[in-house]
Each structure stands twice: as C-alpha cells, then as structure tokens.
Amino acid sequence: MKQDLQPKELASLSEEERQVIEMLRLQTFQSLKITKRNGRIDMIEGTERIEERTRIVDILKEHNYQNIEIKQNDGRVVFINRTIKTKVK
Predict the structure, then answer these.
(1) What is the DSSP string of 11-63?
(2) Residues of the chain with confidence (pLDDT) below 50
C-alpha cells in the first residue's frame, strides 16, 4: 500500500513520527521496530552493530534500556549487536 505524502502532511507529523524519522536518518541502526499502543507509537527499538574492540563496560554505560548480544570465536569477540529501547513520550 503506497501512499505519497504531500508537503503539508509532512509538516503535520506527530512528535512520535518525527522521532522515528530521526532514528532512520541516523543510519546507525540495522533495523527499527515500532510498537504501537492504542493507535499511537509507544516504543521504538533500534538494533545496531558495535565495533568488536569497544569495551563492554562502556557499552553498558551508554544506555539505560538495551539488550546486548555478544558472539565469541576462538576466545575473541567477533560480533556485538545492541538493541536500544526508547519509550516514546
């Protein structure tokens, strides 16, 4: 279902919709998951890949709500994914 937005409609985006667009524009996220409650955006979850050499302690300090996935091969960290959860106000 494709719908072209007119400039007037773009100007009337809600704060929640603007927040989603800002996260899209960051281009650091591999995926975004939007959860709606009662017809409004309630939560945005963004998954990003983090450099393997980043210290885990530093990753933990960066966000209050996150899931971190770490993969190790031959005793070496080879993959870190983080999903950041943002509650929309």
Answers:
(1) HT--HHHHHHHHHHHH--EEEEEEEEETTEEEEEEEEEEE-TTS-HHHHHHH-
(2) 1
